[in-house]
Design a protein that fits this description.
Layout: E1 5-8, H1 15-21, H2 26-32, E2 38-44, E3 47-54, E4 57-64, E5 68-72, E6 78-82, E7 84-86, E8 89-94, E9 97-105, E10 108-117, E11 120-122
Amino acid sequence: MSFSGKYQMESHDNFESFMEAVGLPDELIQEGKDIKSISEIEETGDHFKVTVTTGTKILTNSFTIGQETELESPTGEKVNSVVMREGNKLTAILNGIEYVTELTDANTLVNVSLEHMAGGFTK
């Protein structure tokens, strides 16, 4: 399946605690908690362009699977990472946080973010 398409957020669980963990300021967390973001993905072979629009904030990252690239994190920080693909899942680690985007069917993306801790994972 191709990731290409436009997806609107339907729900986000543990948003506030996760955004606190990644260092987003409280005022931005409060502004963002009720806004439904829109993700647009363009996939051409192994090259992807992902644009996430949340209110007036637009975050765009372009990458090629398996190649190191500079990505912008949700906090706005630029981080070098490698995006990997395994079937219908894209994974990348930014600042110790693993981001997994899974295409569960032709119309549904599920994003999961896990904070990496010494000795294991935590939610």
